[in-house]
Amino acid sequence: MSQSVLSLKNVTIYQESKSVLSEVNLEVNHGEFLYIIGKTGSGKSSLMKTLYAELALTEGSGSVVGFDLASLKENDIPFLRRKIGIVFQDFKLLPDRTVDENMLFVLKATGWEDKIEMQNKIDEVLSKVGMKDFGKKMPHQLSGGEQQRVAIARALLNDPELILADEPTGNLDPQTSVEVLEVLKKINANGKTIIMVTHDYALLMKFPFKTLKCEDTKMFEVIQQRAV
């Protein structure tokens, strides 16, 4: 029986006191891959921010990776985020540090201390995304697709239960976008739960998974057709 990683019941999501999504009911089980689509301003990113507690849940009930969002205290947020891997559109790599140093920064910030264990973990996650030989490179020496692979590896460092990918291919060309989706698909096939916000309908057809659409303050499932 699948274990619920995320559960939202009768949730209303606000952005600066304005309701952007209402009556949201969502259950995501361990190992699922879920797309969220919709126009700019339809509430997709606000939903994601609510899931990693950048926006507070003030109406309805919700739990993410075992944390109750409605009663979440400020000092619990770092513990929630250690169980969630977040991948952003603009990579958010530290520009003055190598790939390995970007990884070390995250590990040290989340309590890792043993140097050998840290390097082994860095090698492991970079291998998963095909970037093991790039540890000494600076971000500016990498293509956009390579930077996003590193960002995905970074999201895997603490073995998260859930990966939130907010427009991870938004700054990439079509072929590179496909390559990044192949990486995410492989990670999902190995058991990771992934929720991905996207505008790229070509990817939805090439890699069909359950798809929810945000529109007119509501969220509902849509059926995507596989590309012929």
Please describe what this structure looks like:
The chain has about 230 residues and is of the alpha/beta class. It has one domain: Rossmann fold (3-Layer(aba) Sandwich). It has helices spanning about 45-50, 75-80, 100-110, 115-130, 145-155, 175-190, 200-205; strands at about 5-15, 20-30, 35-40, 60-65, 65-70, 85, 160-165, 195, 210-215, 220. The strands form 2 sheets. A 6-stranded mixed beta sheet has the order 6-7-8-3-9-10, with helices on both faces. The chain has a 4-stranded antiparallel beta sheet with strand order 2-1-4-5, with helices on one face. Helix 4 (about 115-130) crosses helix 5 and helix 5 packs parallel to helix 6. It is globular, with a radius of gyration of 17 Å. It starts with a strand and ends in a 6-residue tail after the last strand.
Q: What is this structure, in a nutshell?
A:
Keywords: ATP-binding, Cell cycle, Cell division, Nucleotide-binding, Transport. The chain is 32% helix and 28% strand. The chain is globular, with a radius of gyration of 17 Å.
Beta-strand percentage?
25-35%
The rounded distance between the terminal residues' Cα atoms is 33 Å
Work out the helicity level: 25-40%
Q: Mind telling me which CATH architecture this is?
A: 3-Layer(aba) Sandwich
Spatial order of the strands in the main sheet? 6-7-8-3-9-10
| Spatial shape | globular
The domain tally reads: 1
**Average residue pLDDT:** 92
Structural class of the secondary elements?
alpha/beta
Function: Part of the ABC transporter FtsEX involved in cellular division. Important for assembly or stability of the septal ring.
InterPro entries: AAA+_ATPase, ABC_transporter-like_ATP-bd, ABC_transporter-like_CS, ABC_transpr_LolD-like, MacB-like_ATP-bd, P-loop_NTPase
Keywords: ATP-binding, Cell cycle, Cell division, Nucleotide-binding, Transport
Organism: Flavobacterium micromati
